[in-house]
Each structure stands twice: as C-alpha cells, then as structure tokens.
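Milestone 3.1: sequence recovery, worked example.
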C-alpha cells in the first residue's frame, strides 16, 4: 500500500466481501499464457575479483612453502612457525569463503513467484487466511486497491465496491 486512504469509513466486513468478490471474478489464468521466465538479470562482472582472490591464494601457497623452508633451516623457531602458519591459514580460509560467495552470486536465480502462482493461490486460499496473513499478502503482492462506497442517497453507509486492483511486478 503506497498511499493514504481517502475513503470515508466503511465496514471491514463489507470491504472483505468486496475483495473476495473481486478476486473471484479475476479471469482464470492458463499457465501457458503467463510469462514464467525470470526477468533478465544483470549479472555482476566478478572476473576481476575472482582473479585477484585466486592470485592471492597462489601467493599464500607460495608463502606456506617459504615458511616451512624457514623452519626447516632453523631461521625461525617453532613458535614463530606456528604463528605464521596460523595467520596464513586464516587468510586462506577468508579468501576461499569470499571466492565461494563471489561465484555463487553469478548463478542464475529462479523467480520466487510467478504471476500464475500468485493469482491461483490467492483465489484458492484467501478464505483460509487469518486477518494478519491477509494483511501480509496485500502488503507484499498488491500495489494498489481502488475502492469506493456506493451509498444510497441520504445514507451514511452503502455497498463497498473495488474498482481496481494492481499487483506488484516481480
């Protein structure tokens, strides 16, 4: 809901009934007529970052050999050796995680919901939702609902009518 409601007060029950009537009249969708392909995504160009990480991982491997050589030749003591190996291994672990995250961001993603699933589930399951779940659904999937009250002359309350319902795009 992206705006303030300017309607005069109307019964929650009447509004709910109008909403249920409106969604029951939504044209049935045939799945083959709905575009279920994910929207084209712009994939990040992570090649430079992957290359930099890979280069640093190679350098860490080379450093590990140098550290071992320093220890074997008694240039550093055992405590210094352990400290250097520990630091080297921590950095390798950090880089491997970063590389995995970078690679996973390039994997194609399936759409969370298709138009067909949203409308089908809405029509089939609206009556099973409690008020909190209905509110969540409306906030997540519906951009705008245009409602008016058609009251007989001289009456304060009348029939609630939903004029338009616009779903969010995914």
């Amino acid at each position: 809901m992206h705006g303030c409601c300017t309607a005069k007060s109307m019964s929650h029950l009447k509004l709910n009934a109008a909403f249920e009537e409106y969604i029951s009249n939504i044209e049935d969708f045939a799945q083959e007529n709905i575009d279920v392909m994910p929207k084209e995504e712009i994939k990040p160009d992570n090649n430079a970052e992957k290359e930099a990480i890979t280069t640093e991982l190679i350098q860490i491997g080379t450093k590990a050999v140098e550290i071992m050589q320093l220890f074997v030749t008694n240039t550093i003591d055992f405590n210094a050796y352990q400290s250097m190996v520990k630091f080297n291994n921590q950095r390798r672990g950090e880089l491997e995680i970063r590389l995995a995250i970078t690679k996973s961001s390039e994997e194609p993603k399936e759409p969370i919901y298709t138009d067909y699933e949203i409308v089908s589930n809405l029509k089939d399951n609206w009556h099973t939702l409690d008020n909190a779940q209905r509110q969540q659904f409306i906030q997540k999937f519906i951009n705008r609902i245009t409602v008016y009250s058609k009251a007989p002359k001289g009456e304060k309350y009348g029939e609630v009518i939903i004029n338009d319902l616009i779903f969010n795009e995914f």
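The CA atoms of residues 90 and 96 lie 10 Å apart. Residues 12-39+111-167 form one domain.
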